[in-house]
Amino acid sequence: MSRFGNIFYLCLLFGALWGAIWTILITLLALFISGELFQPQVTAGALAGLITAGVLTGLPPERRSVGLRALCGFVFILVLTIASGATPLGLPLSIYSFGQLVFILITAWITVQSIHLTALGFGPGSERRYNIEVICLRFIKGFGLVAFTIAVALPFFIMVMMSLKNQQLLLSNPLDFSLNFSQGARALFRSYIELFTQYNFGTFMLNSAIVSVATVCITLFFAVPGAYAVARLKFPGQHFLSRSILLIYMVPMIVLVIPLYAIFSQMGMRNTLWGLMLVYPATTIPVALYMLQGYFRGIPAELEEAGLMDGLTRLNVIRKITLPLALPALGSVALYVFMIAWNEFLFALMFLDSVDLYTLSRGINELQSSEVPRQHLMAGAVIATVPVLTLFLWFERFLVSGLTAGSVKG
Amino acid sequence: MSTDNTPRPPKGLGPLAKREMRFAYMLLLPTFLIVLSVVLFPLFANVWISFKPVTLGDLRAPSILVNERLMGDIEAAGDEADIRYRIRNSSRQSDIADVFMTDTLPASLEVRAIDDRCTLDGVALACDLGDYEAGKREDIIVRVAATQAFIDAPTNVKDTDPVFEFIPENILTNGDFTLDNFRKVFNASDFWQVLWASMYYTIAGTVGALVMGLFAAQLMNMTFRGRSFLRGLYLSPYVAPVIAVAVAWVLLLDPGPGGTLNALLIQLGVIDGPISFLGQRKADISILGMTFEFPVALTVVIIFEIWRYFPLAMLFILARMQSVSTDIYEAAEIDGATPLQQFRFISLPQLMGIMAVLFLLRFIWTFNKFDDIFLLTGGAAGTRTLTVNVYEQAFAVSNLGAGAAVAVVVFLILLVFSVTFFKFSPEDDA
Questions:
Q1: Set of chain A residues whose Cβ sits within 8 Å of the Cβ of B35
Q2: Does residue B97 lie in a domain region?
Q3: In this predicted model, what pLDDT tens digit does every residue of A305-356 receive, in sequence order?
Q4: Hey, which end of chain A has fewer CB within 10 Å, N or C?
Q5: What range defines the domain where residue B232 resides?
Q6: Residue B334 domain-assigned (yes or no)
Q7: Which of A255, A263, A370 to mutate to test the interface with B (most CBs of B within 10 A)?
């Protein structure tokens, strides 16, 4: 049996791929951060990755120590530099020298690490199908992680970076996301400050907060008793209700918008926050009720019966026994409803005409149609995103279990 | 003994059960009321409006406009003049019923003659003017003579405004019905194009989000450092406000100077000139000598949809995966099943239930989706789906009736989907 088998050749292939992928990505990162027009040296990167993989995975797994990996990193840099004609990032090394060095080191380190993890525990010899699949899946999953992360993060990255730049710079070199920290925090966050001082974003944020919190309160106030009834009490139509309540959630908002617009206009409720506080809960109550009744069912009925035996009324049983036990579910439903109300766009667009009633969604839409500079638009987007994202990530585990236990939402 | 003495359960509900039922209905009543008034009633109202010739401007109720003047020269006591009320219906479309006018005349003017529909009680004038059809205007004349008091201190008749009571016709509740709205919708030259775009968007968006969600769930099911951070990151497209991510995408895809993605692709040498991702309807692509028309903008909008909703699928598939017992994988491992075989023959069958439910729900929600496309393209470049068309007809063209008619079409298609799905879908295990 030869010393080099199918695993080794696969590793060479994946080494070349990793080399190419990381060369492109880190070069682009360098381009974004420095603003210098770097060009990814894809072929050189692939070649460097291939040779590095040959050195590293040609050895048995137990010999791939940290020192050897460092040596491999050096090999990678060497090959990349030679193959790219001394321009590893596409520009002569004299430009932005220190930065280039850092980025080249990062590329080498991360490529070697990727190859190492892909081939972890496998020698260069031949293996059966099981292990070939393991190696291929490692590469695919690693690549998937990289691809998903970039695809998800890129728009958010653009959003934040553009909000800190100014329009002229963006138009002259759209790939330059370098930040000028020497101008001081005031100048850096200028578009944010202007949004709050000149474009009423303080009011918009307050309006969004009022509407969202009110929606959460109203929704819980309505849905908790309803969910309790569906989950615990016996009455004709119970089964039908528990199954069909979610159907309400299938009704498209766009079908409701014309009649509600017409009726609210004639009743003088259209251009008010009250109108939103009526419409939003109506759309969130069914799903909240559905999620909560699922959770209430999971609470042992014996606990409540004990309370009833001890002389509590039904309402007091709900208040003193069921609700404290359902606190996690209440929290996740509240957060979820808050998210829906905060992000809602259609009704805010249709209902609100006066600037002092705008919610954030409506305010940003106004910015977009009034052709303000890009950094203002992006700063507005960041201002709308940060509160809801922070809340969500903070309580994520909370929410996820509650959300998946009860229902789904689009 | 012919009477049957075997004990039987009581017929109907006992008093306790009745109390429980009443209590349950009481708890559900608020929910029922708000859903009825804000969801079910508008659904019905939408169908109603779709049969009515209503435009956006008709929502402003008609009212009575009046112009009051003293006509004629008064120089000495006893001179006569006319107080003229020029009254008209403000609307050219709607009637006004039972118009009733009251006004206070200056005491210093002596009334000589009044319109025979009016009565005078001291200085209080009251006129029962009957119905005003659309656009009607008329003058009501009151003949007066000046007294000495008027010459000494002339009063302006306009100092007291006439007060009107009337019943405006409500365009929404009157008896005019028409089929024009539906004729307009179905005869529109692009109706089938809109329907096709809707279906393509819905199917591709749903399947794409599911597949990507399945893939992401596989990734998140591994254990590695930073996993919870990445999971939070992957959820953010779904959590962030749609307007925020939409404007970020619009700037990202901008074909003009400053568009990041175009600049990036040009820098990488992938394309020669900027592509208008959201503004280009079609691109010709030739594969093996055959030329296909590739819908550019519509596909980009679908990619956005997938980007925004794969986290939801990921979340639910991940939850299901983590509830599968590991024994079964260990057994498969011992039997020599490879990772792909384990996925194909163990994971996938276990996930089919939740995938079916997700498909069903996402399909309906994607079909209902409005904001995403509206914010990205506004329905231009072949991305106009039925929901965007509702907005377009009702608020851009200002024809509420036609918009409502499209909305009825949307709702009917949805109803057909739902019935089909719920008939053929397994019992939900979400």
A1: 248, 282, 285-286
A2: yes
A3: 888 888 888 888 888 888 888 888 888 899 999 999 999 999 999 999 888 9
A4: N
A5: 181-424
A6: yes
A7: A255
